[in-house]
Amino acid sequence: MQISMPIRTPSLVSRRRLLEEKLIGLHKWTNLKQVKQVHAQILKANLLQDLSVAPKLIAAFSLCHEIALAVNVFNQIQQPNVHLYNTLIRAHVRNSQPSQAF
Fold first, then answer.
1. Which of 39, 55, 79, 100 is within CB 3.0–4.6 Å of 87 for a Cys-Cys bond?
2. What is the rounded CA–CA span in Å between residue 3 and residue 56?
3. How far apart, in whole angstroms, are the C-alpha atoms of residue 21 and residue 81?
4. CA-to-CA distance for 72 and 18, rounded, in angstroms?
5. Which residue would you say has higher pLDDT here, 18 or 82?
6. pLDDT tops 50 at residue 48
7. How many whole angstroms separate alpha carbon 97 and alpha carbon 72?
8. 69: Cβ contacts below 8 Å, ≥ 6 apart
9. E strand or H helix at 9, and its extent?
10. In whole angstroms, what is the distance from residue 70 CA to residue 91 CA?
11. pLDDT of amino acid 7
12. Element spanning 45, H or E
């Protein structure tokens, strides 16, 4: 007689993996409180210098009409790339600041 044990799915998921799942759609979020919470988690996990994370955060702040916070994120990046510059330009345009975009 064989006794089969049910397979349990892991209940503990790493914090980093949960954060990465949140980051997938971050660039579409419009709830400022949630964006700020994820921003804090990004800072705590030391992920701000990740050039795939920063543009999403800038875009999210832009959608929340918090361009100053978006610029603050951009200014914290040590070596911004073209994609990051384009994201910031788009954020200024989206927030009716064409002169800053230029």
1. 55
2. 49
3. 24
4. 25
5. 82
6. yes
7. 16
8. 39, 61
9. none
10. 8
11. 56
12. none
DSSP tally for the chain: helices H, then strands E? 6, 0
- Residue 55: what residue type? P
Residue at 52: amino acid letter: S
Interatomic CA distance for residues 1 and 11, integer angstroms = 30
What tokens were used for 75? Answer: 């200014």
Residue 66's H or E segment, with its range, is none
Hey, what are 76's tokens? 């914290």
Confidence of residue 56 (pLDDT cuts 50, 70, 90): very high
**Residue-wise pLDDT tens digits, 1-46:** 555 555 545 544 566 777 778 788 888 888 899 999 999 999 998 8
What percentage of residues in the chain have a pLDDT greater than 90?
Answer: 53
- For 77, phi and psi rounded to 5 degrees? -80, 125
